[in-house]
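Why does residue order matter? Because the sequence determines the fold. Keep that principle in mind as you read this record.
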Amino acid sequence: MNKPGDLDASTNPIRPTSPSNHISPDNSVKDAKELLWKQYALHVDLYKTYLDIVLKVDAFYCVTTGGILSYFFSKVSADSQITPHVIKHVLWFPILVSALLILIFIYGLVTLRVMRKEVFGIRDKLDLETAPELNILGALLFLSSLMMIIVVCGLVYLLRKY
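Structure:
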């Protein structure tokens, strides 16, 4: 029994097909359209998934950074000196996470151009009038990166101050 994705004699491009399972030009056009629809659906699903992931990562980032800053400021005494000197190093975690996420989001922005070009190319081949606007994800990635850059600057300021 063939597993999904296994090639058999009818779908293997290397083996010649017998006359009984010869693909007519009409079938190949239908197969090409079906493949385009599957690619289009995959891109739309990926877009929705990426948008969901970015929103969840942003929420996680805000919650953890807020919690760490809350802990940090609770340990700062009235005369602006940190009680134990080691506590200021807790700020390194959000700085490193921010730097990593900034790199990931910028990479996402770069690859989004390719995905957008592909989606609009498939849209044109399928003669559709509209396609999902992927620049919304790009704007969210850009704004998230900008927010994290601002937070990193603030955290570095706190590290230098204390």
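The first helix runs from residue 25 to 75.
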